[in-house]
Design brief:
CATH architecture of chain B: Orthogonal Bundle
CATH topology of the largest domain in chain A: MetI-like fold
Number of helices of chain A: 13
Shape of chain A: globular
CATH superfamily of chain B: MetI-like
CATH class of chain B: Mainly Alpha
CATH architecture of the largest domain in chain A: Orthogonal Bundle
Strand content of chain B: under 5%
Number of helices of chain B: 10
Mean pLDDT of chain A: 81
CATH topology of chain B: MetI-like fold
CATH superfamily of the largest domain in chain A: MetI-like
Helix content of chain A: over 70%
Structural class of chain A: mainly alpha
Radius of gyration of chain B: 23 Å
Mean pLDDT of chain B: 81
CATH class of the largest domain in chain A: Mainly Alpha
Largest interface: A-B, 53 and 44 residues
Oligomer: heterodimer
Radius of gyration of chain A: 24 Å
Distance between the termini of chain B: 28 Å
Structural class of chain B: mainly alpha
Chain lengths: ~325, ~325
């Protein structure tokens, strides 16, 4: 276990390094000069030169990279071009919206996906099984943007058939009024939850089926459990490690949906902020934000692998 | 509708599995398609994908209305004989734009799958190579990079490339390629450690030859199915990335473009947004079902008609 932990952490550090280099180089080496892009295509050469000097872009790449990394280590993520605020505080404000959104969405997805996945395995008639299958496949095929729109049309204030929930924006004072803020997150979170729920349902189904194919369910039933109890108590427990890794991967899938949803509902979160910075060509902020997000996902990957390991004792014994 | 009659499917030759060369391959493909057609889901997938290709081809020569024909007096028109699905905010015909969009999406999906397949096979080759450093390194690389979402890669690429089809194709191709390699890893490793690979090497076959004749055929079934699923994800990614402003550039017809142009006005004209969303959903469902049906139909274990003599006895 210790050996595995050490290896996995080394891998994490290596990946973090690779990602930082890739992000850094993507903004510099690929066609298009950073300062020209940031200053705008038609700006005078003097302005471009001034910007280049200001950002230190005329220095050698290695020195720029070193500065950036040293800044990151100190917690200095640079400043945004538009308002001059530190990137760290801007991102901090955005996280307060995105993090609850992701968590709420994931909760809804689990609450929908796991029971439905179990039910689809338990279903006896071919018709019921087909119906569950259809729900899983169609649910996974709906574009996030469209699901959000349909929900707005159903429940959004102003245009909906049942106008009870705010369809866009977030209270100006953030979480100053928790009830209002939470209300603003309901529709976006449900959108994310429905879409991710469909894929969690599929994964639950296939994980349970692979557990069932080992004969564990029959064994439990032979010991006197009902089919339902065998599935929910034995099957789910055995499928748990697989499910945890899947939820981790779903996190990475979710972020595309989350970005679209944040834009659609005009929530000033990480995703819409990143897209905003990109359209404003605030590339220093973009660079740090991309790195932070990628690092976040690498941490998730690390946590998922470790949890998987802890939940499935069979894996611990032989370290490949 | 009555259930499809299996006997009507052209009967497979008795020893189809033994036939080699282009002829046998063609015949096997015919059997696979016929088996897919025999099931409702497979038939739906084949019909939808066939229509998609057909409409894309037709849209090259003909659309009911010109894309650039706009009419300021007929914005947000309801569906009518003139405009089958109504018009959008500048009075352009929604149906024509969706038709033209289908070819952009088809090209994007095809290119994405090709890029993903190339990257996937390259990584499989690296994983099964006999240079330990390369094999270990590639596995580590895949594990590390797979947790980075495609959309982040797309945003990275969008900085130098701007909004373009290349951003979607490269970002999705890269992300899905990693995924393909990961999915194919078990069967690739099994093949690489098998006796027949060992004996081929003992016979003096080059690494290239071993890869092409022994490893690729082993991973291909898994990869093809996974590619079909990736194609569905690529359609969804096109819609999302285009909406975020880093995908298909504005002015180029695509389904994501149709979807996002109508978004801003849903409060006033909710109906226009219905069509592109439905279209994308149907196509993605079809791509997913296609993958599943192909897996069933192309695997001799689940499709007795491919098993040749023992599975298909003449009665």
């Amino acid at each position: 276990m210790i050996k595995y932990l050490a290896r996995r952490c080394a891998l994490f550090a290596l990946a973090l390094f690779v990602v930082s280099v890739v992000v850094f180089l993507a903004l510099r080496v690929l066609p298009g000069d950073l300062a020209t892009i940031m200053a705008g295509l038609n700006s005078p050469p003097e302005r471009v030169a001034a910007l280049r000097a200001e950002l230190g872009l005329d220095r050698p790449l290695a020195a720029q990279y070193g500065d950036w990394i040293a800044g990151l280590m100190r917690g200095d993520f640079g400043t945004t071009m538009l308002t001059g605020q530190p990137v760290a505080s801007v991102v901090g404000a955005r996280v307060q919206i995105t993090f609850p959104l992701i968590m709420l969405g994931l909760l809804i997805a689990l609450a929908l996906g796991v029971p439905l996945g179990c039910a689809s395995v338990m279903a006896r008639s071919a018709r019921a099984r087909g119906l569950y299958q259809a729900v899983a496949i169609v649910g996974g095929a709906v574009p996030a943007l469209w699901a959000g729109l349909v929900l707005i049309l159903l429940f959004g204030r102003g245009s909906g058939l049942l106008p009870i929930l705010p369809a866009s924006g977030f209270p100006q004072d953030g979480w100053g009024d928790p009830a209002q803020a939470a209300l603003a997150l309901v529709l976006p979170a449900v959108t994310v939850g429905v879409i991710v729920g469909a894929s969690i349902m599929r994964y639950t189904r296939s994980a349970l089926q692979s557990v069932a194919s080992t004969g564990a369910i029959e064994m439990a039933m032979a010991c006197g459990m009902t089919r339902r109890r065998a599935l929910t108590h034995v099957g789910l427990r055995l499928a748990m490690p697989q499910l945890v890794s899947v939820v981790g991967l779903t996190f990475a899938e979710m972020i595309t949906g989350v970005m679209v949803i944040e834009n659609l509902f005009a929530l000033p979160g990480i995703g819409s902020g990143l897209v905003d910075d990109l359209t404003h060509r605030d590339l220093i902020a973009v660079q740090s934000e991309l790195f932070m997000l990628a690092a976040f996902f690498l941490v998730i990957g690390l946590l998922v692998d470790l949890t998987h390991r802890a939940l499935d004792p069979r894996l611990g014994e032989d370290d490949e | 509708m009555n259930r499809p009659d299996r006997r009507r499917v052209p009967e497979a030759p008795a020893r189809i599995a033994a036939e080699h060369g282009p002829r046998g391959r063609l015949r096997r493909a015919g059997v696979v398609v016929a088996s897919m057609w025999a099931h409702g889901a497979g038939r739906f997938a084949l019909v939808t994908l066939g229509l998609w290709i057909l409409v894309s081809l037709v849209s090259l020569f003909w659309t009911p209305r010109s894309l650039w024909e706009t009419n300021g007096y007929a914005v947000w028109a309801k569906p009518s004989a003139d405009h089958w699905l109504g018009t959008d905010g500048v009075g352009a015909d929604v149906f024509s734009w969706l038709m033209a969009g289908s070819r952009t999406d088809l090209v994007i999906v095809a290119l994405t799958v090709l890029v993903a397949l190339a990257i996937g096979l390259l990584l499989v080759a690296a994983m099964t190579s006999r240079a330990a450093a390369l094999a270990h390194g590639s596995v580590v690389l895949i594990d590390a990079l797979i947790s980075i979402p495609t959309v982040l890669i797309a945003l990275m690429l969008a900085v130098p490339l701007g909004a373009s089809v290349a951003v979607i194709v490269l970002a999705c191709g890269f992300g899905y390629g990693l995924n393909l390699a990961r999915v194919a890893r078990p069967s690739a490793m099994l093949a690489a450690r098998s006796m027949y690979v060992e004996s081929a090497r003992a016979d003096g076959a080059s690494a290239m030859r071993v890869f092409a004749t022994h490893i690729v055929p082993n991973v291909m079934p898994t990869l093809v199915v996974q590619c079909s699923l990736s194609a569905g994800t690529a359609v969804l990614a096109e819609a999302g990335l285009t909406y975020l402003g880093v995908g298909v550039p504005s002015g180029v017809p695509s389904w994501g473009h149709s979807l996002s142009t109508s978004v801003r006005f849903i409060n006033i004209y909710p109906l226009t947004v219905l069509w592109p969303g439905l279209l994308v959903t149907v196509v993605v469902v079809a791509l997913n079902l296609f993958g599943d049906a192909l897996r069933e139909a192309a695997d001799p274990l689940t499709n007795p008609r491919l098993r040749g003599d023992d599975g298909h006895r003449r009665r």
